[in-house]
Amino acid sequence: MSTERFDCHYCKDTLLGKKYILKEDTQYCTKCYENLFANCCEVCSLPIGCNCKDLSYKDRHWHENCFKCAKCSRSLVEKPFAAKDDLMLCTECYSHEYSSKCSTCKKTVMPGSRKMEYKGNSWHETCFLCQRCQQPIGTKSFIPKDNNYFCVPCFEKQFAYQCCACKKSITTGGVTYLDKPWHRECFTCIGCKRQLAGQRFTSRENYPYCLDCFSNLYAKKCVGCTKPITSLAGAKYISFEERQWHSECFTCMQCSVSLVGRGFLTQRDDILCTDCGREK
After folding, report:
1. Which residues contact 30 (CB under 8 A, 6 or more apart)?
2. What does UniProt give as GO cellular component (predicted)?
3. Rg (CA), the chain
């Protein structure tokens, strides 16, 4: 009666009574398995055999005895470590060589610890404090001023202007008009409430107006088209006997020829060119 063979899948040597490795339901002798599948150690370049622990980090592998700090050679097995330029370092060596110093307490900011960074400076999270209330700012918004840092509520209490419209603090930007501060969104035309920041505007009795509202409210009306005449937008106009016309509207009532720079005649409220006036 024959016995079924139990061989290495690669070299075909019998595995009966021998140690073997099973990979994806396929058996290999230890020698073939190591030649085919074992990872090479980053330090000694030798295969990491079946009898050794394979320590890995980001697709790199080490023997347990080879996984050491590149600076002090202390074992990194089951200890915190850091990677720098393909080197594996214990936290002490990494801190000494590369870690930043806290701008407040001047101690090393250890890798992996919570920290705050701003404009090239670093702080322990518990050392980055509001200058006014001395509480850690953490992940909250802050405002820098004169090499100090303030949480938003403290900055508003100590430094921010109050908008003369809504009475709330102005923390960024803003507009000054008649020596008074405004939020950009609060600085609006007194007539139509359109925002005026960055736009041309005028004022009357210290109230700001957009050009359209000012013209509609206060500008003289053209006799020809009845629309406002305003010089604010650079418009040219003709004035005669307390009446005004846009330059393009100052035309003969009968033949519509332009009268700008020409002689004209009046007939009651009508303005006529000299030719039409003689015909009357």
Report:
1. 19, 20, 21, 49, 50
2. nucleus; Z disc
3. 43
List alpha helices for the chain, DSSP H: 30-37, 91-97, 152-158, 211-218, 274-279
Tokens in use for 239? 């004035």
What region does 248 belong to: left with phi over 0, alpha with psi -120 to 50, or beta?
alpha
Do 49 and 75 form a contact (C-beta atoms < 8 A)?
Answer: no
| Cβ-based neighbour number of residue 251 at 10 Å | 19
Q: What does the alpha-carbon distance between residue 240 and residue 242 come to, in Å, rounded to a whole number?
A: 6
What token pair was written down for 224?
Answer: 């020809």
Query: Angle at the Cα of 266 (from 262 to 268), degrees rounded to 5?
Result: 160
pLDDT in tens, 66-107: 999 999 999 999 888 888 888 898 888 887 777 788 888 988
Residues 64 and 46 sit within 8 Å (Cβ to Cβ): no
- The answer, as to whether pTM is greater than 0.90, is no
Task: For residues 63 and 51, give the distance between their C-alpha atoms in angstroms, rounded to a whole number.
Answer: 10
Sorted by sequence, the CB contacts under 8 Å of residue 238 that are 6+ apart come out as 244, 245, 246, 247, 250, 259, 260
Strand pairing of 87-90 and 115-118? unpaired
First-last CA distance in the chain? 142
Tokens 């590149």 found at: 70
Cα atoms in the Cβ-side hemisphere of radius 13 Å centred on 168: 10
pLDDT at 2: 45
The token pair that represents 64 in the structure block = 């347990």
The DSSP 8-state label assigned to residue 199 in this structure reads S
